[in-house]
């Protein structure tokens, strides 16, 4: 057991998908994995291990926001030897030309979080980026599956409800595709501890147009993203 994950040594695969929502983790495990077994229910943050085309893969919920996701990424890598992590999340689109359910691969992640300012004493604006190998593989997988995945930068925000929507407009002007709440921390922690990480997202809502998917859809229907992630993590 680590502090926040109840798995025994060897129960978590070296390849992990990380949705924020633990019930999306359950849905992914039950829908896609062969012989899926739940290894942790600590704090309701469910984790499962099974096989995808014969290769062991784990699915671990990470919660909402960078403090929570950082805990799971840190413990998966340092306590369980995880080598590759793909976040499979929902996001709000900032770019006008994105539609609900579009899939995004986040090449880089800007953030308003203070976590990296603390890490670098406020002296460096560290640029959290995806592992290039995972990113390239995900693009190839999406092409093979006929999924029109967008690749580009996103924002990892501390707050879901912002008082500064004007900043979202500015970020969109600079090519930032969407906002979510974990990717910058995931990329930073993976870099620090020599693991590989990628964030794949499905557009669950459009910030400018006010369009939304339901909670049930966010939990159980983002299958294109999950299939790209599973094929990528075993490649
Ligand atoms: O759907 P998940 O993976 O939780 O991701 C997004 O959804 C949550 C907010 O609704 C945040 O965690 C955000 O990053
Ligand atoms: O973090 C998130 C996730 C989905 N939609 C948003 O607006 N923000």
How are the SSEs ordered, and which strands pair?
Layout lengths: L14 E4 L3 H11 L1 E7 L6 E6 L2 E6 L5 H15 L3 E10 L9 E9 L3 H5 L12 H14 L4 E7 L8 H9 L4 E3 L2 H10 L3 E11 L4 E2 L2 H6 L2 H12 L1
Parallel strand pairs: 1-4, 1-5, 5-9, 6-7, 7-8
Antiparallel strand pairs: 2-3, 3-4, 5-8, 6-9, 9-10
This protein binds 1-O-phosphono-alpha-D-ribofuranose (R1P) and uracil.
The site of uracil has 10 residues, from strand 5, strand 8 and strand 9.
Report on the structure:
- InterPro entries: DeoD-type, Nucleoside_phosphorylase_CS, Nucleoside_phosphorylase_d, Nucleoside_phosphorylase_sf.
- It comes from Plantactinospora endophytica.
- It holds the Pfam family PNP_UDP_1.
- Its EC number is 2.4.2.3.
- This is Uridine phosphorylase.
- With about 240 residues, the protein is α/β, with parallel strands linked by helices.
- The chain has a single domain, classed as Rossmann fold.
- Helix content is about 35%, strand content about 30%.
- It has 8 helices and 10 strands.
- Strands 5-8-7-6-9 form a 5-stranded mixed barrel, surrounded by 4 helices.
- Helix 2 runs parallel beside helix 6 and helix 4 crosses helix 8.
- The longest helix has 15 residues.
- The structure holds 1-O-phosphono-alpha-D-ribofuranose (R1P) and uracil.
């Amino acid at each position: 057991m680590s502090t926040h994950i109840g798995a025994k040594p060897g129960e978590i695969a070296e390849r992990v998908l990380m949705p924020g929502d633990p019930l999306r983790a359950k849905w992914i495990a039950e829908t896609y994995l062969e012989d899926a077994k739940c290894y942790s229910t600590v704090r309701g943050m469910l984790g499962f291990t099974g096989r995808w085309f014969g290769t062991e893969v784990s699915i671990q919920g990470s919660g909402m926001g960078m403090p929570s996701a950082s805990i799971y990424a840190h413990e998966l890598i340092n306590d369980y030897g995880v080598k590759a992590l793909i976040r499979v999340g929902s996001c709000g689109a900032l770019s006008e030309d994105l539609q609900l359910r579009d899939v995004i691969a986040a090449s880089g992640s800007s953030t308003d979080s203070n976590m990296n300012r603390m890490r670098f004493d406020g002296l460096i604006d560290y640029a959290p980026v995806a592992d290039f190998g995972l990113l390239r593989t995900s693009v190839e997988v999406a092409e093979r599956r006929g999924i029109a995945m967008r690749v580009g930068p996103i924002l990892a925000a501390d707050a879901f409800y912002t008082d500064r929507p004007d900043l979202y407009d500015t970020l969109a002007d600079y090519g930032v595709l969407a906002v979510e709440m974990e990717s910058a921390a995931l990329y930073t922690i993976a870099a620090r501890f020599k693991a590989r990480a990628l964030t794949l997202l499905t557009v669950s809502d459009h910030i400018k147009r006010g369009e939304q998917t339901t909670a049930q859809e966010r939990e159980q229907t983002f299958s294109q993203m999950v299939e790209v992630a599973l094929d990528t993590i075993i490649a």
